[in-house]
Amino acid sequence: MVNTSIFPPMEQIPEKFRLRHRVVQKEYLINGRLVKWDGRLQEVYSPVCIKAENGSISPYLIGEYPMLKAKESLEALDSAVAAYDHGRGTWPTMSLEQRIAHLEKFTLRMKEHREEVINLLMWEIGKTLTDSAKEFDRTVEYIRDTIEALKELDRVSSRFQIHQGIIGQIRRAPLGVVLCMGPFNYPLNETFTTLIPALIMGNTVIFKPPKYGVLLHQPLLTAFRDSFPPGVINTVYGDGPEVIGPLMESGKIDVLAFIGTSRVAGILKKQHPSPHRLRSVLGLEAKNPAIVLPGADLDLAVSECILGSLSYNGQRCTALKIIFVHESIAEEFIRRMAEGISSLKIGMPWDEKVQITPLPEEGKTDYLARLVNDAVSKGAKVVNAGGGESHHTFFSPALLYPVNGSMKVWTEEQFGPVVPVAPFKDIAEPLEYVTNSNYGQQISIFGKESDTIAKLIDPLVNQVCRLNINSQCQRGPDTFPFTGRKDSAEGTLSVSDALRVFSIRSLVAAKSTDQNKQIITTIVKEDKSNFLSTDFIF
Question: Would the pTM count as exceeding 0.85?
Fold first, then answer.
């Protein structure tokens, strides 16, 4: 149950987590310079509200950021286009070893701001201290893993091939100008899972932070400026239609790296005048189900389903969004789920062992309440005590049972702490749900019988891109492919896959004549080309 006194007065917030000053950002990065913005600024309020002396609860203003216009957005585009220079720019023609050195320099500078970024993650999006620290550290590790994966890829590409009298060397080359747009729930990590491989493969980048999770990137602007050549990375801020629409309509964006909704992705792609020339790397919605089979280990299933549906308040594309439980064990499963959810700690992001925190999206608690009310009006019950209660930006997790196809929560991705559970008699019922779903990211299966699970694996891997046995849905480890079918994704991201997504195979070929052999030998021996080379990085 939500405690109406959950929000603290400022003096009760631990000193180390207080914001010493508002983050008033008046600069944006373009062409290697931090340009001052004198126009309108967008106020940023934390999902963490503050209690006044009179007991009233108020949103807390933590900063401001620039609301650029189309003019500034197109200037950022011109900067990125000039830095790429049709593939002739300093960055795309630079050796891999040199690009790696730039990225390593950035990583060292980034780590200097670790505590500041973690604190802003808590204040901006309500992520717990533990998860905020994990997001930062995982991002640094991702950068290191990307560098190692690139070295391995380069070693494989460093040799010549000879087939049918043709000498060839095949390497990967950049694609051009990349527009990177990340999500609010992992504004650092998931943004960097596209931005970093795009950069290291030789592309130039325009980066727009998500609506929620903007300020935490401000400490990194100088690191970007000082670590990369001018124009290689540029930032834009503002309303999407105003600053992103002109970029897409220009036709000069070569790659769209977007993590968000399929509706917005569709709009962006249609704005490009040459969609066949646009490569899209998309991470979109998901409605990941879990299927709990008869005889499943209920302690394990309940534990994983609570984590899977309510980690970071359920605000993950990989979260479990609906749970199917065989009717023979449904009542016991629901009882244990309700007990487990009621034991979750609700509080501020920095509270020790906190699990449920305030929600950053404006109007989110109202939306979740409408979902719950719709389900209740059509026969479901809120099983756990206090479920569905809200207080300002808090929403107490709601366990709904039994849900059915007439309810909005059956198909809508709630992206919040609402846990719908449906009983099933025949396994064909959840299988039909998966088949008819618009989404196809992941699924979790809980059970003990290998024969039963085996029969489910073959059809389900043709509907989703990851099947988890006796565990929640998840992205990691980052070396595994991360993608989806249907409206859930386009392109595959992992440490190694991302390098391929943001590049294309190119080759230099020549007939195996004495003259051509001499030309190639001279180029290689005298290090005349970064592409045509047998050197590789240890």
Answer: yes
